Amino acid sequence: MGKRYYCDYCDRSFQDNMHNRKKHLNGVQHHRAKKAWFDQFRDSAAVLHDEQIKKPCRKFLQKGICDFGPNCRFSHMSEEDLFNLKRHMEEERQHKEDSEDRIISGRSIEEWLLKREKKQAALGSKGDSKTKEDNEEDEAESDIPQQLFSIPDLPPSLLPPPPGGWRVSASSEWG
Description:
- The chain has 175 residues and is mainly α.
- Helices cover 56% and strands 5% of the residues.
- The chain is built from seven helices and two strands; from the N terminus they run ββααααααα.
- The chain has a two-stranded antiparallel ribbon with strand order 1-2.
- Helix 3 packs antiparallel against helix 5.
- The longest helix is centred in the middle third of the chain and has 48 residues, at 79-126.
């Protein structure tokens, strides 16, 4: 029986030879099906731009249906549809900005953790030869990023010290 060619865009198959394939791929039906396929992946901004340029379809506005359907060169969107599309586009833009902010803040947390790790390594090598002034400088420099406070159940090692410092009772003995 020979090979068959299946077109995913048109959802049809035919005998595969150079003449049939070329005829199909250059056909109007194939071009419309391919355009419809890729149109479903367009972003809101592109759709809104195209719909604002088009004039409204009189037949669609009068009867609610158009013989040309999605191939009509006029817009089938109402004012309400355009408004909803604008709002959706703004939500997408806001979501994108929020995710970019989280990425940027994620970098600052990583930088803060690296800086903190270096300080702790330096403290371990120095021993207890630090003065009170050194401790105050470290507290001022180790400002904890604000985004960490929004995380519930933050580990105690990442919590800032209380305003008066940690209370250490002299009566408790270790050992």
